[in-house]
Specification:
By secondary structure, this protein is an all-alpha fold. It is built from 15 helices and no strands.
Length: about 300
């Protein structure tokens, strides 16, 4: 496996997250009015944090990566424990379904019960957020050549907090696409969709098929709905001509900027490699050294 591309998955995710953090929830026009075209790490803004600060997207991805390295395999019980320990640290940013699921885990639910309960008791429109697809990228590295296992672990990683099939299969499609990119596949998204097509929700597949055929939808949404986030982030990650362009484009669309930036960053990082991420971004993100180390261990596992 190309270690530069594997490193790119983790570092691209963190860069997209950190670039998008200060403008999360802002519209594209509001971002333009304040920053022009935002292409550098800035401080304050949403959540009032220093430049280069990552959010729950990267922090949960770190939980998954650390667990993989510690356990030398995907262990959903350990991942759930890592999430709860992170939850107890008081993160400044956490999604509703994630918070509710982790609170249930703290009070005795098993790893495959908490997210299921929250999903079943959430109304349509509030039951399929992007909180699991944003963090799942580390799984694509050690399981890049074992697609049956990659689908299973991707779906299980989602189920801890997001049990809706649009979320669980969204993680699977994203990670299969990233795995294809790590192996320099010519049609990574098409291959991913073909692999899960008979099982994945029609709404998810229908939204992503045009991208696999190199078609740009007339509208790309930036809400926290998992199907919107995947469609927009995969579009930017796969269609851009550089890793920087992919992430900057995704973030400047506005909306859920940190998450769409993180997903696009993981895809673009796998496509172009960590060496193509701007040094000015990497210098601003405090977690880069740990991310580099974890990526190296994940490559060894593969």
């Amino acid at each position: 496996m190309d270690s530069d591309r594997a490193r790119g998955v983790l570092l691209g995710l963190a860069c997209g997250d950190a670039l998008g953090r200060p403008v999360e929830f802002a519209s594209a026009s509001e971002i333009t009015a304040e920053h022009g075209r935002l292409d550098g790490m800035v401080g304050h803004g949403t959540w009032n944090q220093p430049a280069g600060t990552i959010t729950d997207d990267s922090e949960q991805a770190l939980c998954i990566a650390r667990s993989l390295v510690d356990q030398q395999a995907f262990d959903p019980v350990d991942v759930a424990d890592q999430f709860v320990a992170w939850f107890d640290s008081g993160p400044f940013d956490i999604g509703r379904m994630t918070s509710q699921s982790l609170n249930r885990l703290k009070h005795g639910d098993k790893w495959d019960e908490a997210g299921q309960y929250v999903w079943e008791n959430s109304p349509e429109g509030q039951n399929a957020g992007n909180g699991s697809v944003m963090r799942c990228g580390p799984l694509a590295i050690p399981y890049a050549t074992d697609w049956d296992r990659l689908v299973t672990v991707s779906r299980q990683s989602s189920q801890v907090t997001h049990a809706d099939p649009r979320c669980t299969f969204g993680c699977a499609v994203l990670n299969l696409t990233v795995a294809g990119l790590l192996k320099d596949a010519e049609t990574p998204l098409q291959d991913a969709l073909d692999y899960v097509d008979s099982d994945a929700p029609d709404e998810l597949v229908t939204a992503l098929r045009p991208l696999a055929q190199n078609e740009s939808p007339s509208t790309l949404e930036t809400s926290g709905y998992v199907v919107h986030s995947l469609q927009t982030a995969l579009h930017d990650g796969l269609f851009a001509e550089s890793a920087e362009e992919a992430i900057v484009t995704a973030v400047n669309r506005g909306g859920d900027t940190d998450t769409i930036g993180a997903i696009a960053g993981a895809v673009a990082g796998a496509r172009f490699g960590a060496s193509q991420l701007p040094d000015r971004w990497l210098r601003a993100v405090d977690e880069v050294v740990e991310l580099e180390s974890l990526a190296a261990h994940l490559v060894e596992m593969s």
